[in-house]
Design goal:
Layout lengths: L6 H18 L5 H10 L5 H27 L6 E5 L2 E5 L9 H43 L1
Antiparallel strand pairs: 1-2
Helix pairs in contact: 1-2, 1-3, 2-3, 2-4, 3-4
Length: about 140
Amino acid sequence: METEPPLATRIGRILVGGLAVLVTAPTGVGPALGGWLAGRGTTDPLRGGLASGVAGLLGALPWAALVYLASAGAFAPVGYHENGVHVGINTAAPELLTLWQELAVTGLVAGTFVGVAVLGGIVAGLSTTILGELRADVSRVG
């Protein structure tokens, strides 16, 4: 059975995972990567899922705030928007959505990021458990 890494190491992994979620979220693999980074080195899938859930939440909060502000029409469109080409953030018109719709869209984005990060952490925790079992089997045989 493997021992738990020191608290500073676990916190560092969670922060690195949260930063990975935040920076790489637009690529689509960012939350899973961040969850895996936060969950690696844990002793089981549950701990990996918990660590990556915190990292996913840390990385999702700024994106959720951006989605809320865009759905509320709090700022003008950002980026290039001419001749049918739209690169950047297209915002909603103010008063287009009701408060519950704005919050629902925000929750959907944040929940998706956190859920995918948790799955990445579970995979990291499973691989740690499986590797530990394989090492124990090899040491018994050899």
